[in-house]
Design a protein that fits this description.
With 327 residues, the chain is mainly beta. It has 2 helices and 29 strands. The radius of gyration is 18 Å and the shape is globular. The termini are far apart. The N terminus is likely disordered.
């Protein structure tokens, strides 16, 4: 069990390594990017927002570290929905087609589902200790998540647990994504590899050229290209038709966290150490500086309208408007 961290700064460090005032929304205009950002302060000052996911109904769900609650932005209002037990480094959340959100609950050794109405149900894991990473919902409704304590990329379908165990204990599975054709993809931090799992369970590994890159988040775009973050490599990786390319994000380590692919093919990510959002489009990078000096963007999601949402572990959930994101 990970000990309770006593300070907000220590929690930031824990979240980075894992990769790694009540009221209404606050509006900001920032230059020279000329972007418009709307931010929602947490309803409880000790809440630390982490993973985030956008639903087709416009709702945005997010997890909060050390909080017995799940967060949601719905109809322009921030909500804090109580849940059993306190979250511990909750980095996995995804929204299903029915509007319910699934999230990984390491502290409770379970995977849980919360409906738009706030009802929560869970699938318990058959392990006494669970260290869970990212989570994704497949087109068939099954839920996939990384389970480091079982060296597995695990699927829950119709309430049954199916594990895809990695041979090497160096694997350290973290990120998970599922393509439209049902292929699951994962990052293996310790092995410095990308893992592909076919619907029949067959697995294939892809080595990342940069040594010790520490791959974290992973996503699949509409064309089937696989995108992933290299936390220590300070790069964005792409696996396309079996070919692996890397795109360096400047010279200084930006602390890449969170990853989302927009409908237009743009790849969005957080830059934790620079207080910015980053975009890779057509091979070119653009940085969007967030308006607050102490901003620490961690999770990233893009909604159906093209707005870019992010969690800020200093205590906010924010949105970069689509009109600015497209520029």
């Amino acid at each position: 069990m990970v000990p309770r961290l006593k300070s907000r700064r220590m929690r930031y460090v824990a979240l980075a390594c894992a990769v790694v005032l009540a009221g209404g929304a606050a509006w900001y205009a920032a230059r020279p990017a000329k972007m418009i950002v709307v931010e929602f302060p947490m309803l409880e000052t000790r809440d630390i927002p982490t993973a985030i996911a956008a639903g087709k109904d416009g709702s945005v769900w997010f997890t909060m570290d050390f909080a017995a609650a799940i967060g949601r932005v719905h109809n322009g209002k921030l909500e804090r929905i109580p849940k059993p037990g306190v979250n511990l480094v909750p980095v996995g959340i995804a929204v299903a087609a029915d509007g319910a959100a699934w999230f990984a609950d390491s502290n409770g050794q379970k995977i849980s589902r919360i409906t738009p109405g706030g009802e929560i149900s869970s699938v318990p894991l058959d392990t006494p200790i669970a260290r869970l990473g990212k989570l994704a919902v497949a087109p068939d409704g099954s839920v996939w998540f990384s389970e480091a304590t079982a060296y597995s990329i695990t699927q829950v379908k119709d309430g049954k647990i199916v594990r895809h165990v990695i041979d090497s204990v160096r694997g350290a599975p973290y990120g998970v994504a599922v393509s439209r054709d049902g292929i699951a993809w994962a990052t293996l931090q310790g092995a410095n590899q990308i893992l592909r799992i076919d619907p029949d369970g067959k697995m294939k590994l892809f080595d990342i050229p940069t040594r010790g890159s520490s791959p974290t988040d992973i996503e699949v775009d509409d064309r089937g290209d696989v995108w992933f973050l290299e936390f220590r490599g300070n790069k964005i990786g792409r696996l396309s038709s079996g070919k692996l390319d890397e795109f360096a994000v400047g010279e200084d380590s930006a602390g890449l966290t969170g990853l989302a692919v927009a409908g237009d093919g743009s790849v969005w990510f957080g830059m934790l150490r620079k207080g910015s959002l980053g975009r890779l489009r057509d091979g070119k990078f653009k940085e969007f500086k967030l308006p607050r000096e102490r901003a620490r963007p961690y999770g990233v999601a893009v909604d159906i309208h093209g707005n870019v949402w992010y969690t800020d572990i200093s205590g906010y959930v924010g949105m970069l408007k689509a009109s600015a994101a497209k520029k």
